Amino acid sequence: MKADLVEAWLYQEGYWHEIDQDGDLHFKYDGKHMYFSPDDDPTYFRVSMPGIYKLENNRVKVLEACNTITRNYKVLKAFLNNDSLWLSMELFVDSTPEVGDFMDRCCRILVNGFNDIAKEILGDN
Question: Which residue of 46, 67, 69, 113 has the fewest C-beta atoms within 10 A of its own C-beta?
Answer without folding.
Answer: 67
